[in-house]
Each structure stands twice: as structure tokens, then as C-alpha cells.
């Protein structure tokens, strides 16, 4: 996981870390502060995913295999909690294929300073999108 977020904005592209997005395809931008509900949903999703993988792959082959999905659920939920971020920089991006317009989370961070950086870039993006 990256320690810091690097955002480079030019008149034609918005680059976040190693990913670049064309400015002509960006429709809107926002900064979102994630709540406990968001973290809980992520924990449940990753926990269910790891439990189901272990259930379908290992049940019946190992001794005490019936307990592995529960252990996988707890491990997945803990992994989701440990890798969670508090602030998310999102853009509404118009893809060139049949996907259409979607909100993409392009950067995440738990630092208050990064939230201020995100808000600064959102303001710049909105100013460019209006003109």
C-alpha cells in the first residue's frame, strides 16, 4: 500500500499515482468521507468472499475443514478493516466503450492532509469543467 498520494493535473490529463485519466472524459469530482457503514459493508463483502472461496475449495479435504470458512470470514473482515481508508477522491468518468458514466474511486487515504489535497484538486477540476 502506498504511503502517500501523488496527484498531477495538466490541462489534458489527471494522473493519480500511476493511473491517468483524460480531462475530456471527466464529468464531475468529489471527496467522500467514509462512515462505519461503508467500512462494515466492505468487511462483510471481503469476509463472505474469502469464506466462500475456502468453503468451495477446501471443505472435506482437510481435518476440521468445516471451521475454515469461519476463519476465512474473520481473516477477510480483519483485512478489510486494516486496509480501510477514511477519505476517497472520486471522479465521474465517461468511458469510451459501452460502459457509460461511472463513479471511480481514484485515490484513498486516511490522512487529514490528504483530504485537504483532495478537496483542492476537486475545486480545480470543477473550475476546469465549468470553463
TrEMBL record:
The chain crosses the membrane at residues 40-58, 70-89. InterPro entries: DUF6232 (IPR045629). It comes from the Bacteria. It holds the Pfam family DUF6232. Keywords: Membrane, Transmembrane, Transmembrane helix. This is Uncharacterized protein. It comes from Salinivibrio costicola. The lineage of its organism: Bacteria, Pseudomonadati, Pseudomonadota, Gammaproteobacteria, Vibrionales.
Amino acid at each position: 500500500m502506498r504511503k502517500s498520494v501523488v496527484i498531477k493535473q495538466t490541462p489534458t490529463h489527471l494522473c493519480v499515482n500511476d493511473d491517468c485519466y483524460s480531462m475530456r472524459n471527466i464529468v464531475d469530482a468529489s471527496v467522500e468521507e467514509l462512515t462505519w457503514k461503508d467500512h462494515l459493508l466492505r468487511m462483510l463483502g471481503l469476509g463472505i468472499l474469502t469464506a466462500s472461496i475456502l468453503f468451495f475449495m477446501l471443505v472435506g479435504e482437510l481435518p476440521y475443514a468445516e471451521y475454515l470458512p469461519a476463519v476465512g470470514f474473520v481473516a477477510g473482515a480483519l483485512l478489510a478493516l486494516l486496509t480501510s481508508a477514511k477519505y476517497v477522491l472520486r471522479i465521474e468518468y465517461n468511458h469510451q466503450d459501452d460502459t457509460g458514466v461511472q463513479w471511480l474511486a481514484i485515490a484513498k487515504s486516511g490522512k487529514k492532509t490528504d483530504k485537504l489535497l483532495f478537496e483542492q484538486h476537486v475545486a480545480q477540476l470543477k473550475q476546469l469543467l465549468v470553463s
